[in-house]
Design brief:
The protein has 4 helices and 16 strands. The protein is mainly beta. The model has no long low-confidence stretch (mean pLDDT 97).
């Protein structure tokens, strides 16, 4: 294979059998369980990279069920998003993510810089409640429950929140192990269609774990619980700061 062929075909690895296809990446019937809780402010600020500002000591713990996603298939995801601001614009900083499907792990890390690791999250309905769980290596790390569709939420408000800016710290090492890329990335969700949104009583339990340390941001008080479903497109990102320059 000559140099020109390599350049033409190179998108991601492996060269001859890419781990995921080029975008756009459309998600249909994407279902969320999101628990917003109050946590330790000192620990929270220690985890958020400089240039992003913590407004309140809050964390949004998410379980996301994705049964129909372009190129990525059918999978479930779980993780912590921290409400922040960047130059006066409010958004969310993704602190950690755990999921059970290789293509979105590879694509999420390589393209955007999502902090994704392989684990076993679930989101399901059990009788009168919505249940989210996260297991890492067979060990239960997180459990969330919510009353099923107790009260309707304002769909426009949910759509506005989803359309806001999101921030990631993208890190790619050089072949000698030193950082080659260390960037603050911004991305957006586009063409959002809300199919339903609800609130109700919610609870969240986090367990200490060496390799899935979600409990480092302890649950001090549950503020709100939301359950919603949407179709949306995950847009590609842009670099807003290079920490290596």
């Amino acid at each position: 294979m000559n140099i020109h062929d390599i350049r033409d075909k190179a998108f991601t690895m492996p060269l001859t059998s890419p781990a995921y296809p080029p975008g756009p990446y459309r998600f249909v019937n994407r279902e969320y369980l999101a628990i917003t809780y109050r946590t330790n402010e000192e620990k929270l600020r220690a985890l958020v990279p400089e240039l992003l500002t913590v407004q309140e000591p809050l964390v949004r713990y998410e379980f996301i069920r994705m049964p129909d996603s372009t190129g990525f298939g059918d999978y479930t995801e779980s993780g912590q998003v921290i409400p922040v601001s960047f130059q006066g614009r409010r958004g969310g900083y993704t602190h950690c993510m755990f999921l059970n499907d290789h293509p979105p792990i590879a694509g999420g890390r390589e393209l955007w810089g999502f902090p994704k690791k392989l684990a076993s999250p679930t989101l399901r309905t059990e009788i009168d409640m919505l249940v989210g769980t996260l297991d890492y290596g067979g060990v239960r790390v997180a459990t969330s429950t919510m009353g099923y569709k107790y009260s309707a939420l304002d769909s426009d408000a949910v759509k506005e929140a989803l359309a806001g800016p999101n921030f990631l710290l993208k890190i790619i090492p050089h072949v000698d192990g030193t950082p080659r890329i260390c960037e603050l990335v911004e991305y957006h969700l586009e063409d959002v269609v809300i199919k339903g949104a609800w609130t109700g009583p919610g609870a969240l339990s986090l367990a200490p774990h060496a390799l899935a340390p979600v409990a480092e941001l302890p649950v001090l008080e549950v503020i709100s619980a939301q359950h919603f479903a949407a179709d949306l497109t995950l847009a590609l990102g842009k670099i807003i700061y290079d920490y290596l320059t």
